[in-house]
Amino acid sequence: MRLLDALPGTVVMAPMTKGSNLPYRRLCLELGARVTLSEMTVARRLKQKRRGEFALIRRAPDEPCFGVQLAGTNPEEMAWAAALVESRGADFVDINFGCPIDHFTRKGLGAAMGRQPNRIRRIVEAMKRAVTAVPVTAKIRLGWNDEDRNFLDQARAAEDGGADVVTVHGRTRNARYRLAADWDAIGEVAAALRVPVVGNGDVLFPHEIEASRTRGGCLAVMAARGVLIKPWLFREASEGYLDLDGEARVAIYRRYVTLALEHWGDDVHGRARVREFLRWHVGFWCRYARRRDDGSWPGMQQREGTPVLRSDLEALLARGDEPALEFVTDRLLAGEPIEPAAAPAPVAVPLDADAVVEG
Ligand SMILES: Cc1cc2nc3c(=O)[nH]c(=O)nc-3n(C[C@H](O)[C@H](O)[C@H](O)COP(=O)(O)O)c2cc1C
Asked: Which of 137, 139, 169 is the pocket-test mutation for ligand 1 (most atoms within 8 Å of CB)?
């Protein structure tokens, strides 16, 4: 499916290191996702023929509109990588101009590129020349910090270079996740560009999809943490708010285990890999909070002190402490019932437990 046909009004599954693994994307597709992206893939590592990096660009057979996100600083290398991923089946090629992690920004990658709009333009131009049929999209942040919110320069540079779509994550690099996403700034970009804009930041419940899209004047919204916390967000996008109880959620988590075992293999090696990913996902699933009894909605930025829980199972699934996360992971992997009475005693959760690894 062509990206520009698939985009209007949709929720794009964000590129997420670790989170956008192939079986998790398949789970999201089963729950209604239509546009998906790979984890960030470093062009140089593809050039070095690293197997782990090639695994990231693999498309699932049932993926209707799959983009590969590339990161790099060198226009020729990025152009080469764009042609490669197109030849391997990507429906579009996305460029990471937003990764905040020091390890990458020190090398000039990700958000560091955002400080040099001319380089953005040159990279997009080179990649556009290298691909034959697929769109090239650019994902930017609002800037490096509050003093340097150069999002209009970045967005125009991407458009001038030939980007077909620009995605804007409504925060600066230094803000990380501390502040709410600035959808008005996203709206400024949408108003300034001729090409479509996808807005990104803090979408967790279905009513926020349309509200954010309208506020940002965007063609579509992109969701990251919301999708890790509740992969059924895509179904909610078409059906409205779904009040899934603990059992219904566990059924979805079990489906991930099945897909993950299919992908990594149901042997000792494969199960170790599945366990590693599953434990990571369980750390997001425990953050799920329902609509409150008074009808108000918990926000992505505030963690609920006492989520509204209806059963011992929901209470267990909401625990963010290590023994509970390990217990739930092991039961899911073993395909065994999750019996709250058998769960280990809670331990205190460190204050920074919500910190996430960003790409
Ligand atoms: C675990 C995780 C990994 C991420 N990895 C990437 C990545 O590889 N590439 C990228 O452009 N953004 C990455 N991001 C950022 C998201 O794509 C998104 O821009 C950001 O989380 C804001 O959206 P949200 O408020 O819906 O979470 C990552 C985010 C998370 C939570």
From this structure: 169
Active-site amino acid positions: 99
Q: For the chain, give the mean pLDDT.
A: 95
pLDDT computed for residue 97 by the predictor = 98
From residue 221, alpha-carbon distances to 7, 27, 145, 169, 346 in Å are 9, 19, 23, 10, 37
Q: Hey, where are the domains in the chain?
A: 3-239, 246-342
Q: What is the average per-residue pLDDT within 276-282? A: 98
Ligand 1 neighbourhood includes 56 CB (under 6 angstroms): no
Mean pLDDT, residues 61-82: 97
The H or E element containing residue 323 is helix 322-334
- Tell me, using a 6 A CB cutoff, whether residue 357 lines ligand 1: yes
> In terms of CATH architecture, what is 3-239?
Alpha-Beta Barrel (3.20)
Q: What is the pTM of this model?
A: 0.96
For ligand 1, say whether the CB of 199 is within 6 Å of any of its atoms: no
Strands annotated E in 211-328: 220-223
